[in-house]
Every structure is written in C-alpha cells, then in structure tokens.
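Please supply some protein, with fold tokens.
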Amino acid sequence: MTVPAATSLFLDDITVGKGWRTGTHIVTAEEIAAFAALTRDHHPLHTDEAYCRSRGFPAVIAHGLFGLSLMEGLKTELRLYESTSIASLGWDKVRFRAPVFAGDELHLRMRFTAKRPSRNPGRGVVTEFLELLNARGEVVIEAEHASLILARRGEDT
C-alpha cells in the first residue's frame, strides 16, 4: 500500500483488492475541543479529564465521529476521486475499536472491496474498507464506505 500521486480514478480504473495508506495526522487537544464546539457534543468524555480518569481513560478522548471525519479527510488527501467523485453514499459497519487521545499519530489504510455500474450510465459505485490506525498499529476505527463516481465508459464498466 502506498500513498499515490494526485489522480482521479474512474470506476473503470478501480481494482478490487487494491489498497492505499495515507500520510499521518497527529490529533491535538485543540482539535478535540473544536470538534466538541462545532458539533455541540460536550459530553465529559470529550471535555473533562477528571471524568475520563474516573471512567478508566488516562485523558480526554476524541469523539468517535471526529475519528470517522478524519478518516474521510485522510482519504480525500489521497485524491483518488479528485475530479470523478459525485457523492458519498454512506458509511456502514462503523466500529470504534479503541480510544483516540490528543497526541495520537493516526493514518488510514483502505482497500477497494467492490465496484459496480449504477443505474445511470457513466456512473458507478465503489465500496471501500477503511481502517484508522494509531502509531502502535492498533485499529482505532474501521468502517465500510460507498462512493458514487464517474465511469469512463457508459454502461459497460
């Protein structure tokens, strides 16, 4: 798995089983606080270190949806669908496997698991399996994602 050069894959270019690895991102306490403010989710697990310690965590933990959003952002940095993306069709089988803390260095590993033409010619659906990992190699979040993208050829993709 490698970080690709900027590209825009069409449905025709997708190889099921092909994988990618992103660069890293270090989570900050400021990002966790900003996400809480943006989403209005000020649960003490995300804002109160003493509360977190009382629940068995060493520090404030990032929101699960923060991690999921970061997964999308890291995937976008791969520029796989830079000019071919039409829409995200949704996330499935999302699992929060381990907490994310400020200072964690994270990267994304993804692979294509399926592709098919859509009902509309010139478009198709690609399914990805994604894992967000910390520097210790632990999967902190995993999920499936479906994207609607352009196809080069009409219905014969």
In short: The beta strands are 19-26, 85-96, 105-117, 123-134, 139-150.
